[in-house]
Amino acid sequence: MRCSDLERQSPRALRRLKRIERENSLRKLVESNPLLTDEDLAEMLKVSVSTIRFDRARLGIPEVRERMREMAERARSMLRSLSPEEMTGELIELKINESGISVLETTQEMAFKGSNIIREIYTFAQASSLAMALIGSEEVLIGRARVSFKHPVRVGDKIVARSRVANRKGNKFLISVHSYVNDVEVFVGHFIVVSLGKGG
What we know:
The chain has 200 residues and is α+β, with helices and mostly antiparallel strands.
């Protein structure tokens, strides 16, 4: 559209174009990262939270908790190597033998006594259970782990762990897990997971 064409547009038509562009951006952002909150989206699109909620309603996009619940139900239905109760964190995405995502909401009970710093065992348990969950076999074990705790996690932080199968040799899978609080990487782990059963 040429500049003169834009100048001839009514203010109402310009607002409509702006809304359509914003809604397209909103849809793409949620598709690329379903864990974004309304506050995150508002900041990214430079609009109010109420505008995001209105746009989500118009587009039929559920709020983040509902998106996570739907994703978790789909992921749990695919889980073979562990039961959902054995997972540390909520499994929200699972592509067997490929990749996965889990979320861990931290609480005071997970912290060192007299501190608000979360004990490393929880970050490790989230990552190792996610690595095991990736394998499409009913029996798996961690054969080896090389881990690095990059940044302390505090009470109330939400840890998002993302994993992927980096390599496979026979029944052994090299899986990398990167965990984040907001955009800060707090943990990196490389696990060799061994499939003992069929399907892996």
